[in-house]
Specification:
This protein has 417 residues and is mainly α. The chain has 14 helices and two strands. Strands 1-2 form a two-stranded antiparallel sheet. It is globular and about 65 Å long.
Amino acid sequence: MLANSATSRLKVIMERETFSKYSWIDFVFSIIGVCTFLVDWGSDLWVAIEFYCHGDFLWFGALVALMIVSSSLVQMFSWFWLKYDRQLPGFRSEIGAEAVLFVDRVKLTCLLHVLQLGFLCRHISAIRQGFRVWWRKEEGSEYAVYLTHDLSMLRLIETFCESAPQLTLMIYVVLRTNKARTVQFVSIVASTTSIAWMVVDYHRCLRSFLPDKAKQGWGSSLVYFLWNLLLISPRVAALALFASVLPAYIAAHFLIVWSSFVIWAWRQRTDFMDSVGGEWLYRATVGLIWYFSWFNVAEGRTRSRSIIYHTFITTDGGILLATWWCYRDPVTSQPYAMALLITLPLTYLLGLLFKCIYYCCFHPKLWRPPLREPGLPDDLPDSQVSFREFPIQEAAESSQLLNKRMAHNAALFYSSQ
């Protein structure tokens, strides 16, 4: 597995001396992140209470199930990662005694995760550590960055396991009832905000592993945000439209597509977690993410896999839209039916266009100062320069505190397209 294999080497595009330092922007991102999390959960509880009070027990059960499943998945990943980190050589000494909230309190940590409070406590720990580093100018910058990277990945999981499905559910309810109550509107806004913030925050964490991060300005983040927004939105809308006419078949659709994606992730021989059980949990979660959006999980032939994925999602989305068009109520859907039928496919194609623009014009691999292998001539074209490999075990044993999980994702994102 990733942490235990002596031969596992990640193509992390970075120098050892270029670890990201914690700044006030990181602290602000942490504050906004926990506020987004609390608002999202608050809106979830509000919607659940409204459903229950109005006698919509089926929708109430679906929403509560989404909340429980997503929260449990996030807590499991958080617990696995804390266990793995405790086994890293020198991890306890690197982060310092005052910086530890969980590491030495195993039973308390386990109890907090069972009570579904582990993710919230991670937010508190990151804010506490960030305040010590940024405001009090104390040591521990690397550990503060380490915590924010873990939080970013947990938000990614939480977003596609809870916010995206919940957004689909809320749109479905609006379509079925042909009206939107205030609480549903608030829930849609909260879920959309959560997805948007996750995209921005996750890309920012990926950028922190670039040695020339300053050269990748906010324009790249904007294009990255637009590409993801334009691809995720029509996917969510197509699923909600299909569910509005054939609600009994959406579960079968999900199970078939999700199980196929899990098998595909297994066939790609993912190597992200440090245990067999953890790896299968990761593959199952990747299947959930792929149900809504593409996420690279393995090296080699990334472009081919991306093309296969988007071809499948485009075809699947077309089938969902065609089914909705055939079974829709022509009277209630008349004001928006034709607009949706035209807009959703065009939006997805526009998202693919923005993705191509990103990789052609903004992807750092195309224009960053190259890392040349020893012995190569100075005038070698950039296209012939290979990325320097950075061994995970050496990073763990060095004086720098490297979050190997985010480093793994950054390596796949920046060096495989």
